[in-house]
Amino acid sequence: AWLNFVVSSKARAKIRQLLKNLKRDDSVSLGRRLLNHALGGSRKLAEIPPESIQRELERMKLATLDDLLAEIGLGNAMSVVVAKNQQGEQQTQPGHGHLPIKGADGVLITFAKCCRPIPGDPIIAHVSPGKGLVIHHESCRNIRGYQKEPEKFMAVEWDKETEQEFITEIKVDMFNHQGALANLTAAINTTTSNIQSLNTEEKDGRVYSAFIRLTARDRVHLANIMRKIR
């Protein structure tokens, strides 16, 4: 709104360009930090041969290294994928179907067991040695305050066409009567979900809790499972 107070259209244009440049500079700086972090201890961006960078620019149809870094900083390119290309590791393609995370072709993906995200959940990722790209639910207690360390985390999206099933956990409280557990497992079986494990804990003489680890395709499938249980 403050641009409206600048009378000259030429002055307004210069201010807009300055703001755009500031945003780009921030994106380039963030992209550089993200890429160096993704490269890990093996090498840094400054050590990558220019011809290798040029191949990446041609692959992504970009003109300069700053363009590439800005794309990473803006979240349009994944630093871990660019780093993998620069480290000379051959990308492996899935045998069939789609990877669950958009743009993560050839990258090892691990879903955090602390929060067990499934498609439809808001997610964030970080790179971990030996685990590749680790996916967390945005509200996971183990990554609380991740916004303060943008160089360590990256925004990721679910691939809408993934056919993979994911393991999630639910807790069901029920009255302790004969056949209750059998009815619960029968209801789950009608939803094409597979029960991985089931443990019970008595709350009092009348009620106990069932802790169930099962498979679900996404949040919609999980909601359907919960409706059947109720």
From TrEMBL:
Q: PROSITE patterns under this entry?
A: ACT (PS51671)
Q: Name one GO biological process term.
A: guanosine tetraphosphate metabolic process
Gene Ontology cellular-component terms listed: plasma membrane
GO MF terms held by the record: GTP diphosphokinase activity; guanosine-3',5'-bis(diphosphate) 3'-diphosphatase activity; kinase activity
Question: Pfam families in the record, alphabetically?
Answer: ACT_4, RelA_AH_RIS
- Keywords per UniProt: Kinase, Transferase
Q: Where is the ACT domain?
A: 169-230
**Biological or metabolic pathway of the protein:** Purine metabolism; ppGpp biosynthesis; ppGpp from GDP: step 1/1
Per its record, how is this protein called by name?
A: GTP pyrophosphokinase
The record's section on InterPro entries has: ACT_dom, RelA/SpoT_AH_RIS
Q: Which CDD domains match?
A: ACT_RelA-SpoT
